[in-house]
Structure formats: C-alpha cells, structure tokens
Amino acid sequence: MSERRNLRELSREGWNGVATVENINSGSLQRIADSLEKIALNHKRLQDDLAWTERRLKEERESGHRLRRSNAAFKGHITRLKK
User: What is the reported pTM?
Assistant: First the structure.
C-alpha cells in the first residue's frame, strides 16, 4: 500500500534526477484509476438523482391529473345542486 502511495507521489513530481519511466507511468496510471473511481461515484449519484426526479415527476403528474378530474366532478355536482 505504501508503495502505491509512493508511486503516486513520485508521478506528481518534476524529475531532475534518476527515475524509471515504468515507476512514473505506474503512479500516473494509479492516479488516473483513482480519479475514474471518483467520477464513477458521481455518475452513479447523478443517475440515482435522475431516477428519483423522474419518479417524482410521474407521481406529481398523476396526482395533478387526479385532482383535475376530482375538481371537474365537484363542479358537476355543484352545477346539479344549483338546479
């Protein structure tokens, strides 16, 4: 574990001395993998938020439709009562 962290840190440094390309590339790839994991977590959260929003939108549309129908029925009853 400490070697991974060390390679990540080494890949961030500007090299003036002796460093192997393999180690620097390895650290760079590990940093890229870490950032992709963070992106994947955010992507998953966004997908979950979208699914929740779409569900709520559908529920609210159905509720609005029911209320419009109910109001129309009440208006009909009121009209009949006035006669």
Answer: 0.50
Tens-level pLDDT at each residue, the chain (83 residues): 455 556 666 666 655 445 677 767 777 788 888 889 889 888 999 999 999 999 999 999 999 999 999 999 999 999 998 87
Domain-wise residue ranges, the chain? 2-82
User: Using CA atoms, how far apart are residues 77 and 83, in angstroms rounded to an integer?
Assistant: 10
CA distances from 64 to 54, 61, 69, 77, 78 (A): 15, 5, 9, 20, 21
Is residue 7 within 8 Å of 29, Cβ to Cβ? no
Describe the chain by its helix, strand, coil percentages, rounded to 5: 90, 0, 10
